[in-house]
Design a protein that fits this description.
It is built from 19 helices and eleven strands. By secondary structure, it is of the alpha+beta class. A hairpin with a 4-residue loop joins strand 9 and strand 10.
Length: about 625
């Protein structure tokens, strides 16, 4: 049998540790995320007919907090590698090669007197021991994956081998070795603690499309059903959340792609580019289908990088992939904040100036670009790769690549330090009527440039003033005033009691018909009391005390309002009523009810407000007694 060529790679450079930098940047965002969590949690406390907009706004804000939970899971995985190992092996059915379920059957030699061919697991184990002593293999019969690295403990590593790689080993052993070398490339960088099987970062990328469907599409659909879809605050929140979906993924995907391309480069230096390309083409369909394309680079990109590994273009792509993702994240933040400000009532010119100023300031106030520059400067010192004159197989880092990776953050930081953009005088809403400020929606990678940033000192936490009465409400025609102001000249003195017998009609004036029907349902069976002073009260919270404004022999007009306040909201309910009595024991009560809720909250020195209004016209049949 032909002896394979030596596979130990020559000393070669790799990309900067962008994956670890991504984890550190997430850690720096924990205090802001906790503050935002406490703030949006108050929006989940009420879900009445006037609170759906606020409820959905809070749900949309929670979407941007999801990376916090994956960050906490990543920290737990780092602190408890053995627990992650047990979970991964139980989930994927990974067993040791000597397990009774995986142990090879007794093999007879082909010819008497000749030793039997070693089992593939023994040959795989010997190959891995040659390059990474102490690394253990675990086997699984599942399909869909080839091989993945994962931690076995603080100082031990395991490689999960799946059915497609076993088949490749039996048909093209050199290509299968290249796949194992790719996983060992992750091991050389310590990336098995952050990526690989059971990685929270990979899980974040995999689950994010479902989060978009469940926590964005469904709440927005709820708004359209309940009639609150035109709330400006909620529409602004929807815009920010939709832009935050790719924004959150950019850094994580950029870091994962950089790590994968770096591991490909390690395998190519060890087994040869042609072998790695052959392995990628053989396993293209089985290992990178569906959502796996998000956390693995496209196979064509990987093949190109392997084939052109020593060119300046491939090295530039490998090193600048993550900084370019960081820059694209800044652009998405800017593009999402401008329409959010416009929806909140700001002019497009002032909104654009405000967002550009905030983005400009974030270049130097946020740690991302400073950390990128620091990593770029330290990276050559850590790798220690120098041009090797005596060893032609060793490669050196291109000077152009090093200059480029340092120049990108340097130029952006210089732009951030120069006074190029200023905020609009008087604030973003100065040219418009007083309006709400943007919601506090800064996510883990927002960079402080979201529409929720404020331009002045931290506002006070005072609740909003009483809402204004909605214009255009229907009115009842007044009757002839009674000199006595009582319930009519033919009625004996004393309070009269009624009960709702039927809701004959319930129509929406503002909002949806469903809301009007909900109000009508709550008034069924209500008890009403008409007092001697002409005040009408009910045993339902939807009805304020109504005072008589005019009365004739059969018709009484009434009006009333009530305001309820919390620490962050004020809700006012207005009601106009017409009570028409006949000769029999029944009466008709016509109602026009309107309710407006103004919400104002200050979270992490950011102010956001929202207003939601509904109005209904109802007609009830009352029975006396």
């Amino acid at each position: 049998m032909r002896k394979p060529p030596p596979l130990r790679p020559a000393r070669s450079w790799g990309p900067p540790p962008w994956l670890w930098l991504t984890l550190l940047l997430f850690l720096a965002e924990i205090p802001a995320l906790i503050g935002l969590t406490l703030g949006v949690g108050t929006g989940l406390g009420r879900f009445g007919e006037t609170g759906r907009g606020r409820f959905v706004t809070a749900v949309l804000s929670l979407v941007q907090l999801l990376p916090l939970f994956f960050l906490l899971a990543a920290l737990l995985a780092l602190l408890a590698p053995r627990a992650r190992c047990r979970s991964v092996e139980r989930r994927y059915g990974l067993l040791a090669p000597d397990d009774p379920l995986m142990a090879p059957p007794s093999a007879a030699s082909g010819n008497p007197g000749e030793p039997a061919e070693p089992h593939f697991s023994a040959r795989m184990t010997a190959f891995v021991d040659e390059h990474a002593p102490g690394t253990r293999l675990r086997l699984s019969t599942r399909k869909g994956l080839t091989a993945r690295v994962y931690p076995g403990g603080w100082r031990t590593t395991r490689i999960g081998v799946f059915a497609p790689l076993v088949h490749l080993w039996q048909t093209d052993v050199e290509a299968a070795r290249a796949v194992l070398l790719h996983e060992l490339g992750h091991l050389r960088q310590g990336e098995q603690h952050v990526t690989g099987l059971g990685s929270p970062f990979t899980a974040l990328v995999r689950i994010w499309p479902y989060v978009l469907a469940g926590f964005v599409v469904l709440p927005v659909t709820l708004l359209f059903v309940t009639g609150n879809a035109t709330a400006r605050l909620t529409l602004a929140e929807v815009v920010l959340v939709l832009f935050s979906v790719p924004k959150v993924l950019l850094l994580v995907v950029g870091a994962l792609w950089s790590a994968e391309l770096g591991a490909d480069r390690f395998a190519a230096r060890a087994a040869g580019p042609d072998t790695v390309v052959r392995a990628l083409r053989r396993l293209e369909k089985g290992d990178h289908g569906g959502l796996a394309r998000l956390y693995h680079p496209p196979v064509r990109m990987r093949i190109w990088c392997v084939s052109h590994g020593e060119t300046a273009g491939a090295q530039l792509l490998l090193t600048l992939l993550w900084p370019l993702a960081l820059f694209a994240q800044l652009l998405l933040t800017t593009l999402g904040a401008v329409p959010a400000y416009v929806l909140l009532g700001a002019s497009s010119d002032r909104a654009t100036r405000q967002v550009l100023a905030l983005s400009h300031e974030s270049l130097v106030t946020q740690p991302a670009w400073w950390a990128t520059l620091a990593v770029a400067l330290v990276w050559p010192l850590v790798t220690g790769v120098r041009p090797a004159r005596r060893d032609p197989s060793a490669t050196s880092r291109s000077a152009k690549v090093y200059v480029a990776v340092v120049l990108v953050p340097t130029v952006l930081l210089l732009v951030g330090l120069l006074p190029l953009v200023s905020r609009p005088a008087g604030g973003v809403f100065a040219d418009d009527r007083p309006g709400p400020t943007a919601p506090a929606t800064q996510g883990p990678s927002d960079g402080g440039t979201g529409a929720g940033a404020t331009t002045t000192a931290c506002p006070s936490r005072a609740a909003p003033p009483d809402p204004a009465r909605p214009p255009g409400l229907p009115a009842f025609a007044p009757g002839t005033p009674s000199p006595s102001g009582d319930g009519g000249p033919d009625r004996p003195p004393g309070p009269r009691t009624f009960r709702t017998l039927d809701v004959t009609s319930a129509d929406a004036v503002a909002g949806t018909r469903t809301q009007a029907q909900d109000v009508g349902d709550r008034l069924r069976g209500a008890r009403w009391t008409l007092h001697d002073d002409g005040t009408l009260t009910a045993d339902r919270a939807e009805v304020p005390a109504l005072r008589t404004t005019s009365v004739d022999a059969t018709t009484r007009l009434l009006t009333g309002q009530r305001t309820e306040r919390t620490d962050v909201s004020a809700t006012t309910t207005w009601m106009e009523a017409r009570l028409v009595g006949g000769a029999g024991p029944t009466a008709r009560l016509d109602l026009v009810r309107a309710a407006t809720r103004d919400t104002r909250a200050v979270v992490a020195c950011r102010e956001f407000t929202s207003t939601s209004s509904t109005a209904q016209r109802l007609s009830l049949t009352l029975g006396e007694g």
